[in-house]
Amino acid sequence: MKPTQFIQKSLLLMAALLTLSVACTAQSKKQQENAKAEILHINANYMREHIYDFEAHPDTFVYKGDKPAIIDFYADWCRPCRQLAPKLQKVADRYADQLVVYKVNVDENPQLAARFGVQSIPMVLFVPLNDLPYKSLGDLPMDHIEGLLGKIGVKTDNQ
């Protein structure tokens, strides 16, 4: 094989490897963007152990988490709850590194719902690290959610 042929084949092989590398990187980034953040469905035991021990501190909300949180009180049969769910999933996906999203099914956890004074659903608590939660009711518009995220310490795209 002549030196010029060797150089041409080597350059062609390097170009093919570079193209393959770029394609794999782009695919990996696309998979990361499409990955869904986990929203944790919780009960009273999980709440006491990881979020707020309402038995030890019945009069004062003492948050145990290390990131701000959203706690969505909902029911499967509730239409506004179902309309809110994809918005909260979008928030969980977008801000997964800054925020944790929890869901409490009020039909499965009536004592927990009563403890938090849930009378209408969806009821959403926006929990900052070192302050009392903000309470919101109904199917929230995305700009309202983003505003409350800013109040609990999440750096949003709008800030």
Low-confidence stretches: none
Sheet/helix structural class:
alpha/beta
Strands in their spatial order, largest beta sheet = 1-3-2-4-5
- Describe the largest sheet: 5 strands, mixed
> Overall pLDDT, averaged?
88
Which oligomerization state do the chains in this entry correspond to?
Answer: single chain
Overall radius of gyration: 23 Å
Helix content: 40-55%
Count the strands? 5
Shape: elongated
Give the SSE order as H and E letters.
Answer: HEHEHEHEEH
Distance linking N and C termini? 62 Å
Number of helices: 5
How much of the residues is beta strand, in percent? Answer: 5-15%
Describe the structure.
- The protein is α/β, with parallel strands linked by helices and 159 residues long.
- It is 45% helix and 14% strand.
- It has helices at 3-34, 44-51, 79-94, 110-115, 142-151; strands at 40-41, 69-74, 100-105, 123-127, 134-137.
- A hairpin with a 6-residue loop joins strand 4 (123-127) and strand 5 (134-137).
- The protein starts with a helix and ends in an 8-residue tail after the last helix.
